Amino acid sequence: MSYSRSKNTKSQGTKTPFCKICFDLGKPKSVYTSHYVRKTPHPDSMITCPVLLANVCRHCHMTGHFTGSCPKAKREERERRKERFVEERQRRKYAECTKTHVESSRVKKNAFAAIYNDSDNEDEVVVCATVVESKPIVKRKRILNWADTDSDSDSESEEE
């Protein structure tokens, strides 16, 4: 947003008022050079542009700003982003927790398995739910020599 436009004459030293909002809306030169957007260049200063003062925001129904710069919309977007961040963090934490339990359930069952599962803390509470996926056991034909590798199915070897 440009606050003012100076004329090319350096000796004069005066600045012509310029309103970027009226300029962007295609108003005539006499309109956009008759006032500034704000009273001073500071962003918190009073708005002097009549177009901006007459505009009603479609989001919060207040005057003095456009929908793209609505403070209420910005605040709501910030809160939505924060909620999404918290949800994503909780989802990752839950996924990590279930991943460690699934990995711990895959420990081989042998004489030393109790050593891996035992902990020093007797009052330990497990928070995560245990997810166990059962996969069917598929027996594969064991290849005894390289001549058997070219047969595609068991039925071909039985026919011969």
Q: In words, what does this structure look like?
A:
The protein has 160 residues and is mainly alpha-helical. Among the domains are: 4-54, no CATH class; 71-118 and 125-132. It has 6 helices and 2 strands, in the order ββαααααα. It is elongated, with a radius of gyration of 37 Å. The mean pLDDT is 75.
Descriptive terms for the model:
two-stranded antiparallel sheet; 4% strand; 38% helix; 160 residues; 6 helices; mainly alpha
In short:
With 160 residues, this protein is mostly helical. It has 6 helices and 2 strands, in the order ββαααααα.
Low-confidence stretches: none
Query: Taking all residues together, what is the mean pLDDT?
Result: 75
Shape: elongated
Secondary-structure element order, N to C: EEHHHHHH
- Looking across the biggest beta sheet, what order are the strands in? 1-2
Q: N- to C-terminal separation?
A: 87 Å
Q: What kind of oligomer do you see?
A: single chain
Largest sheet: 2 strands, antiparallel
Radius of gyration: 37 Å
Structural class: mainly alpha
Strand content: under 5%
Number of strands: 2
Q: How much helix is in the residues?
A: 25-40%
Total of DSSP H or I helical runs spanning 4+ residues: 6
List the helices and strands and how they pair.
Layout (H helix, E strand, L loop, with lengths): L3 E3 L8 E3 L2 H5 L4 H4 L17 H5 L16 H35 L7 H5 L36 H6 L1
